[in-house]
Design brief:
This protein is mainly alpha-helical. The protein has a domain of about 60 residues: Arc Repressor Mutant, subunit A, CATH 1.10.10. The protein contains 5 helices and 3 strands. Strands 1-3-2 form a 3-stranded antiparallel sheet. The longest helix is centred in the first third of the chain and has 20 residues. The radius of gyration is 18 Å and the shape is elongated.
């Protein structure tokens, strides 16, 4: 990606359309994968919210932030957990997907 800054003159309506299009594209790409809210991923993994927060910071659990909301991709979490130093314990814990 190029770090050049290019200034162009566009109308407010054109800017709105560009933003709408970018958001629509992101939503369409996101909808291709099942994303879970924090509450949902806690239920799937059978963990508490505090455990999720610890894992998110300590294990660098992958997540996506869309607006102010955080979402988790279960497949990315499985991969991250298996690659972490806790990988074997994760598999033996009964959640090996």
């Amino acid at each position: 990606m190029n770090n050049e800054i290019i200034l162009v003159s566009i109308s407010k309506d054109e800017l709105k359309e560009i933003i709408k299009s970018a958001i629509k594209t992101e939503i369409e790409q996101t909808n291709k994968k099942k994303l879970y809210t924090s509450k949902e991923i806690c239920e799937v993994l059978n963990i508490s919210m505090s455990t999720l927060n610890n894992w998110k910071s300590g294990l660098k659990l992958p997540y996506k932030k869309l607006g102010k909301r955080i979402y988790y991709d279960l497949e990315e979490i499985k991969k991250s957990m298996k690659e972490s130093r806790f990988g074997k314990a994760f598999e033996f814990g009964g959640f090996n997907g």
